[in-house]
């Protein structure tokens, strides 16, 4: 078996399986219990200083 055929077979089987498992893992990570608060905080972070500018000594805004 030459190198190309071996790598092609490896990519068709094990690499595909690894990518599918990675995708399923990412979906489960996003929808895990307790992630809602972190996701809401990240989504609303751009509106955190909407009514007044960030103070100059605030390290969070940098």
UniProtKB/TrEMBL annotation:
Alphabetical UniProt keywords: Membrane, Transmembrane, Transmembrane helix
Transmembrane segments: 13-31
InterPro entries per UniProt: Cbb3-typ_cyt_oxidase_comp
Protein name as catalogued: Cbb3-type cytochrome c oxidase subunit 3
Organism encoding this protein: Paracoccus spongiarum
